[in-house]
Write a structure and sequence with these properties.
This is Cytochrome P450. There is one protein chain. With 417 residues, the protein is of the alpha+beta class. It has 17 helices and 12 strands. The strands form 4 sheets. A 5-stranded mixed sheet has the order 1-2-8-5-3. β6 and β7 form a beta hairpin. α9 runs antiparallel to α10, α10 packs across α12 and α13 crosses α17. The N and C termini lie far apart (55 Å). Bound molecules: protoporphyrin IX containing FE. The site of protoporphyrin IX containing FE has 28 residues, from α12, α13 and α17.
């Protein structure tokens, strides 16, 4: 069905569109007039379906699809983690080794194993180390600001903590961290031509991470230590990940836990700087509800995908077996059926049933508590060290088909003259 109000072929995955803005007015129109809509435009996300795809915009429908994996499979390229065919080893279909692209029961098996590394206790055990990292990242940004007090918040602050958190979590030795950071950044950046990184370089970096992680896994099997790698690959008596599976799990962490949290932090800072009353409130009261509202407001992952496993009815439409379905979290998180004044950035919003971490099904974000902790730690540090930060210019946005990202956010510590 054509949306009566949008140009035929309007594409919500168009990187040019997402570089400019999140299409909130169009999402609002869709939620009201055509909440499940067949977009005829071949999408800009590889594997999203060559003929077109279903755009799902209402909170209730995104949740329904996410919680019914038997009707909507994750098996075919759920997210945009691409590998170059010529680089992939032994013709393995590497996509299938990533848990985001698995269905139960295979997904259930892997998820049960990797969950061991994300228990509340495991995440809490990182808190002290990450708290002091957050503080030193912000202090270093202040120390290295230009003489006029200006610096880029993204590269100096937002990029650092998510990388450190993943390295801390999997126990990457300090000396190896810069390599992992370099590979992760190359992998995340090839969507954006301005970085001048080709898809080949991104794919090569991904394979470097897999090889590095497999070696780490093999070393821990040989010589167990007190870390998550050991718990996942070498624990006795329970299911374990193979070295291959561990390698691809680290890739997923490098993509899923890195760019997402970076963008939540950058958008959060931008939201504070453009809503000074919320920043004042934050500095005074540090509400525990802040991080969730930042994730709702930013919705760093605009959309993920599923494939219908059978003919199925959704939002009054007949979706046929094999058709691709796009879950638009950005739209769901602004659905007025669920949120009072969704266009208001309100760090005390409670309850806040946003879908920024997914629609609550089996793939619900594994790193949610870690992400929330990172966001809390970084804004606590910014509020303590840089309470009077000011925005210097509009942010430069990331050019991407599926991420709502900020590439550059120029700020200053100098008082307004
Ligand atoms: C899955 C968002 C941070 C690890 C997901 C999904 C979303 C998401 C939308 C898919 C959910 C679904 O399909 O139902 C975010 C956002 C983050 C964030 C917005 C930051 C603000 C992290 C962090 C980690 C992480 C810090 C780990 C270090 C994962 C993993 C999955 C996942 C492993 C796949 C889970 C599965 O397939 O079972 N995330 N994420 N994420 N996330 Fe996150």
């Amino acid at each position: 069905m054509r949306c009566p109000h949008l140009p035929d072929g309007f594409d919500f995955t168009d990187p040019d569109l997402l570089q400019d803005r999140v299409p909130h007015p169009e999402f609002a129109l869709m939620r009201e007039t055509a909440p499940v809509w067949w977009c005829t435009q071949p999408p800009n996300i590889s594997g999203f379906g060559d003929e077109g795809y279903w755009v799902v915009t209402r909170h209730a429908d995104v949740k329904y699809v996410s919680t019914h994996p038997e009707l909507f499979s994750s098996n075919t390229n759920t997210a945009v983690i691409r590998f170059n065919e010529t680089i992939s080893r032994d013709q393995i279909d590497v996509q299938k080794l990533i848990m985001l692209n698995m269905d139960p029961p295979e997904h259930t098996r892997v998820r049960q194993i990797v969950q061991r590394g994300f228990t509340p206790r495991a995440v809490r055990s990182l808190e002290a180390a990450l708290r002091s990292r957050a503080r030193s990242i912000v202090e270093t940004a202040l120390a290295s600001a230009d003489t006029d007090g200006s610096f880029d918040f993204v590269t100096n602050i937002a990029v650092e903590l998510p990388l450190q958190a993943i390295a801390e979590l999997i126990g990457v030795p300090q000396d190896d961290r810069s390599k992992i950071f370099d590979w992760s950044n190359k992998m995340a950046a090839y969507d954006d031509p301005e970085y001048a990184i080709t898809e080949e370089v991104g794919a090569e970096a991904a394979m470097e991470i897999v090889a590095y992680s497999m070696n780490l896994a093999a070393a821990r099997k040989e010589c167990p230590a007190q870390d998550i790698v050991t718990q996942l690959v070498a624990a006795e008596g329970e299911g374990n990940l193979s070295s291959d599976e561990f390698g691809f799990f680290v890739i997923l962490l490098a993509v899923a836990g890195n760019e997402t949290t970076r963008n939540a932090i950058s958008h959060g800072m931008h939201a504070f700087l453009t809503h000074p009353e919320q920043w004042e409130l934050y500095k005074r009261e540090r509400p525990k509800t802040t991080a969730e509202e930042i994730v709702r407001w930013a919705t760093p992952v605009v959309s993920f995908q599923r494939t219908a496993t059978q003919d199925v009815e959704l939002g009054g439409q007949r979706i046929r077996k094999g058709e691709r379905v796009g879950l638009f979290y950005s739209s769901a998180n602004n659905d007025p059926e669920v949120f009072d004044a969704p266009e208001t950035f309100d760090i005390t919003r409670d309850p806040n049933p946003h879908l920024g971490f997914g629609g609550g099904g089996p793939h619900f974000c594994l790193g949610k508590s870690l992400a929330v902790m990172e966001i809390d730690l970084i804004f606590n540090a910014v509020a303590d060290v840089l309470p009077d930060l000011r925005l210097l210019e509009d942010p430069r946005r990331l050019r991407s088909a599926w991420l709502n990202g900020i590439k550059q956010l120029q700020v200053t510590t100098a008082a307004e003259s």
